[in-house]
Design a protein that fits this description.
Blueprint: E1 9-12, E2 15-18, E3 29-34, E4 41-47, E5 52-53, E6 56-60, E7 64-68, E8 75-79, E9 84-89, E10 96-104
């Protein structure tokens, strides 16, 4: 992930930690997610301070970031350790899943 310059901060297992062990405040971060089947890629904006992803409320834990895109209907679960993103869409035929990979934006 791209991280703004923060004094005494390190990345530990995908989590920004201040030197005193408390979570550090981070500027919004952008990651790039890619569908391995189609190679389609898009940017996702993570705002940890506001608890949002792309402007949608998110549940953020040490292991997962989950959110619901109310405009397009998808449910997203990002594994912070591996960058694996699972996207679920409901439909009248039972819905479908997409499995994508996310990494720091370049």
């Amino acid at each position: 992930m791209r991280v703004s310059t923060l004094p005494n901060a390190v990345i530990a297992g995908g989590l920004l930690i201040a030197a005193n062990g408390q979570p550090a405040r981070a500027a919004p971060t952008t990651i790039t997610c890619t569908n391995p089947g189609s190679a389609a890629a898009w940017e996702v904006r993570l705002d940890f301070d506001r608890g949002e992803v792309d402007g949608f409320p998110a549940r953020i834990t040490d292991r997962w970031i989950s959110w619901h895109d109310t405009l397009n209907g998808g449910y997203y679960d990002l594994d912070r350790a591996s960058g694996a993103l699972t996207v679920r869409f409901a439909s009248s035929t039972g819905g479908y899943f997409l499995h994508d990979t996310c990494q720091p934006a370049r």
